[in-house]
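Anyone? Bumping this.
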Amino acid sequence: MHRRKNAARAVDGFSNRRELLAGIVAATAIATGQDLITTPGKRPLILHNDRPEDLETPPSYFTTWLTPNDVFFVRQHLPRPTVAEATYRLAIDGKVSKQIELTTADLRKLPQQTVAATLECTGNGRGLYRPRVAGVQWMRGAIGNAEWTGPRLSDVLKLVGADLNAAYVTVNGADTGVAKTPDFIRSFPMRKALHPATLLALQMNREPIPDMHGFPVRLVVPGWDGTSWVKWVTNLSVANDPNTGFFMNPGYRFPKHAVPPGGAANPADLEIIEGMPVKSSIASVADQDHIPLAPTLLRGIAWAGEQRITRVEISTDAGRSWHNAELSPQDLPFAWRLWTFKWTPLQEGYYTIMSRATDSAGNIQPIVATWNPSGYLYNAIDRVGVNVEKTA
Amino acid sequence: MKRIISFFGIALLVTCALAQDTQLAERGKQEEQHSCVQCHSLRLVDSQRLSKAGWEKEVNKMIGWGAPVSDRQLLVDYLSQQYSADKPQPPVEFTQTTAKQKSATPSSK
């Protein structure tokens, strides 16, 4: 009851005329089944779902270490809420000594940290699994790297006298389900909540977090999959047990043992996903591109959840031979590294280019990603075919 | 004569099957709109490529989440026919291209 009231207060209606108009347009779209995509503040992105927005970054943008906000991918489970900062309150309850509500001004009074971290959708690459599985058919672009700024979650928990021996922190945002769709609520263990890089971010790349990305407050859980990074955070609850809603179970779980592709997982075998596996993607050329017969700089990205990237190897002959790529200098925990590889094709023809990353724990990208019924954590060696042609 | 009759017989069967397909497509499209658009765009549905078992599972999940499906079997048959695993992927579309296309459609009300 307490929670519902606070969430409702945090969600202000239509604060100006443009939003009101957008609301009317959206309502009309819903009534007629005609969708009208409005993506304020975004350059053209690959469209998977007009409403709520599921937008993928074209990989050609992955040539800068920080992904600009206006090309950053968007994944919404539920309709995007509009949260007004003036009425925003963060309510914290459960095992806390002071049950209080915080404003953004309160959050700004705490020491501000900036953490560079890669955010990847748990289902990035789902569209590459065979047989296909249901869900947004992300290819390579449900990922981005940004600098996130705000107080440490641990400082917020200490401020309200949270029992730091409690096992879980449960996080809810201002978004709510339509019809009987479950609310998007996530729990994660106290050890990760207390990690110094786990933030309640107020800024993304030094700007207020855009509406689509969780304005005014978004949870940042470096090294963990995007599902944990709850947007529009309005409630934190400290407890010994995790939330048991759909988005904790059976949602966002991965089978402990491999499942035959197309098969079903035993529900008892499903584990909560924490962190992301080692992976690299090719960004500067797309599959079936035509490129001139000339020296080419191949570029891409590599990341490894809570580990660091130690090596990226490139093959331009379908994996017969591999050569080390150059890695970008920023070697930070939680942030991706860019890689480059100078390639001079000797003759025209069709080439299969592959990239393979290794992390600081010795994990190496597999040849085949582990098929799973929900299409999570795709991390096979990346592969694109290109046609090298003599220019006229 | 026999041959002519069997020719017309086959032609009639083919015509009926086609008409049925068209009818399924039309009624199915309406059922899809009615059932799905309250919560999300149809693009999310139409970009899936699933087996019939896969579509059954999705439709059942969405009914559980409150989708106002009036004819479950019709919806499953339609989606399995239109968006089966062997159909090619839809072409890649970008956000602003779509916005332009939509605004250029005069009938959008």
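Late reply, but here is one note on the structure posted above: The longest strand of chain A covers residues 349-359.
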